[in-house]
Design brief:
Elements (H helix, E strand, L loop, with lengths): L1 H42 L4 H8 L6 H11 L4 H19 L8 H25 L3 H6 L1
Helix pairs in contact: 1-2, 1-3, 1-5, 3-4, 4-5
Length: about 140
């Protein structure tokens, strides 16, 4: 029975790691699209501001899902806490959307992109890694 539990846990860990990797890509792509929408609104089509405002609501909580997947998938603290850090940055973005703090809004967008890229690059090696229990079973 212990072997069955270990196999189930190993499978869960692998699936969470794969989901983390895929969702980190999705998050990074969404951030790029969000910046594109801001640029489109700024330079060509001002109605795109509404798209920019609403699109963020479709992906802003991916970082919380990444946090949960990171814990279940036994990813490094850097990956797990990095996910939480992105969630905090997303929330700070709302406060920088207006007024004098608006100058920080595009800078924080760069930080969000860099953070998402870090999660993508950092999560890939975990896909090939075995858990301690799995390597001990063979």
């Amino acid at each position: 029975m212990t072997v069955e539990v270990s196999k189930t846990e190993t499978s869960r860990v692998k699936n969470c790691r794969l989901a983390y990797y895929i969702l980190s890509w999705v998050l990074m792509i969404c951030i790029v699209i969000q910046v594109f929408l801001a640029g489109l609104a700024m330079f060509e089509y001002s109605e795109a501001w509404q798209w920019h405002r609403t699109f963020v609501h479709m992906f802003e909580y991916i970082s919380i899902i990444l946090l949960i997947l990171g814990i279940i998938g036994k990813l490094s603290r850097k990956m797990t806490w990095g996910s939480l850090g992105l969630f905090v940055l997303f929330n700070i973005q709302y406060y920088t959307a207006h007024g004098i703090a608006g100058a920080l809004h595009p800078v924080l967008a760069l930080a969000l992109f860099w953070g998402a890229l870090t999660l993508v690059r950092g999560s890939y090696p975990f896909l090939a890694r075995r858990t301690k229990r799995e390597s001990g079973m063979r």
